[in-house]
Amino acid sequence: MKTTKTIYAAFQENGKGGNPAGVVLDAEGLSPRAMQGLARDLDAPTTAFVVEARLLPDPCLGLRFYTPQREVAMCGHATVAAAAALVDAGRIEPGAGRVVLRLRAGGSDRVLSIVRGAGSRPAVELALGGARTWNAHVGREEVEAVLGGVRSDPRLEVGCAATGLRHLFLPFARVSDLARLRPDFPAVKRLCERLDVDTLGAFALGRDGDEAVRLRDFSAPIGKDEEAASGTTSSALLAHLVRTSGVTAAESVDFPVRQGVEMGSPSRIHVRWTPNGSVEVGGAGGSFSVRGTAAEVARTAHSFPSALETRSA
Asked: Which residues pair with 245 in a beta bridge?
């Protein structure tokens, strides 16, 4: 069996930067062992494997996600990359309109919309549904310590949230504080594993509407030490901010997140919150979605021994 492996940069800013994601389009016959091996070989933060893709009679896209270390339930930037790859391969032709797919990933269904304007990259919007938020049972100083001891902003809460993966968030007073962080990645991993979260997000509120928040996402527990763009982390961060600030709104709120700047790979994630009230601890409080683009940056072919082609649980 032969398949093509591609690398896409998702959530690029002005056509540059972004977070690499592997994409394997024809993965229906691959075993988990084969998918894990491919993800390890590609060495992207996450690789999306397209295990189902159809437009008729019921539009559906089935994905599985692997970091170089293990399978994960959901990945926003790899979903955007996979949708863009399907458009580039001619599997989906949204034209100037919209294609809506039911996304099967992580044991639940979500909605994926793809819009392609004339001469532009496809814009992909992933509906993540509701959010879950909870209090972080850890001292602020302990979280500061694993990031090098830079003092966080005591005016904002430390907390946890999830719209797919689970995240711990630590606020800082200034965007410049984020560049001063010196993470101890083994300590970050131990802390996250103890708290049963997947990543640690350090953030600072921006000063203008073009950058509502700057984010650094330390993801050692599930893969790479740091991610340059994280869709599920960005949407969970908005849920955390909505809940801890007591914000309410009558209509949808758009929330631009910049990430990857300190890594030299600037990225931009557009997060939207459609409220149905305030977000309470343990509650959803509305629905969240992320939007962005992706572009191919590398492509290789791969052949599998027949023993690895058979899918197994």
From this structure: none
Same domain, 272 and 304: no
| Ramachandran angles phi, psi of 86, nearest 5° | -65, -40
The total number of structural domains in the chain stands at 2
Let me know whether 281 and 140 are in one domain. yes
**pLDDT > 70? residue 55:** yes
Residue-level length of the chain: 313
Encode pLDDT of 131-157 as tens digits: 899 999 999 999 999 999 999 999 999
Helices (H), the chain: 32-42, 76-88, 140-146, 175-179, 185-195, 231-245
CA torsion through residues 168, 75, 286, 255, sign: positive
Burial class (CB in 10 A: 0-12, 13-18, 19+), 300: exposed
80-92 pLDDT tens trace: 999 999 988 888 8
Same domain, 170 and 216: yes
Q: What angle do CA 215, 221, 224 make, to 5 degrees?
A: 65
Asked if the model's pLDDT at residue 208 lies above 70, the reply is no
Task: Name the packing angle between helices 231-245 and 76-88 (round to 10°).
Answer: 140
Q: Is residue 127 part of a domain?
A: no
CA distances from 203 to 2, 224, 286 (A): 42, 18, 22
